[in-house]
Amino acid sequence: RSADLFGLEVHATGIADLATARTRFVLAGPTGVPTPRTGDDRTSVVFQLPNEAGTLVGALHEFAYRGVDLTRIESRPTREEANTYNFYVDLVGHIDDIPLAEALRSLWLRATRVTFLGSWPRYRDSDSGVVPSTMMDPARLAQAEDWVRAARTGDLGELGD
């Protein structure tokens, strides 16, 4: 389809080993504000961690604790120092989703470098039958945020339970 849209030459067809395989295309541009949250988004980051036992497990737990799904993780050597890697991660959700933002904040505290590549609406093939992933209920997240705000100001009142 991209070849038709952009007048490109197709070098091979039918190369996928699974009918559900999809090719990813990335449009790179200058740093800017992410597209607005749609509720069916993806976010990508690249990060580096200290070369110490358990750092990758700890970083991945930040996502797991908050229910943020990883759809892809790859590692590539940094070529800067022995045994250091760039971890490329695709996440379900948008930077404006509270669990994802909290996970990235915690990742930043653990990492030696984090690069935010962006958040954008997930492409949905209308024929795929894929149901959008759901983050935690936004109303429940808003209640949790209200509780934390009240706890910080000492005004828990009815929210104290």
What does this protein look like?
By secondary structure, the chain is α+β, with helices and mostly antiparallel strands. The chain is built from four helices and four strands, in the order H-E-H-E-E-H-E-H. It has helices at residues 2-6, 55-65, 98-110, 138-153, and strands at 41-48, 70-77, 85-92, 113-121. It has a four-stranded antiparallel beta sheet with strand order 2-3-1-4, covered by helices on one side. Helix 2 (55-65) runs antiparallel to helix 3. It is globular. The model is unreliable at 129-134 (pLDDT under 50).
What characteristics describe this protein?
161 residues; alpha+beta; 4 strands
Secondary structure topology:
Elements: H1 2-6, E1 41-48, H2 55-65, E2 70-77, E3 85-92, H3 98-110, E4 113-121, H4 138-153
Antiparallel strand pairs: 1-3, 1-4, 2-3
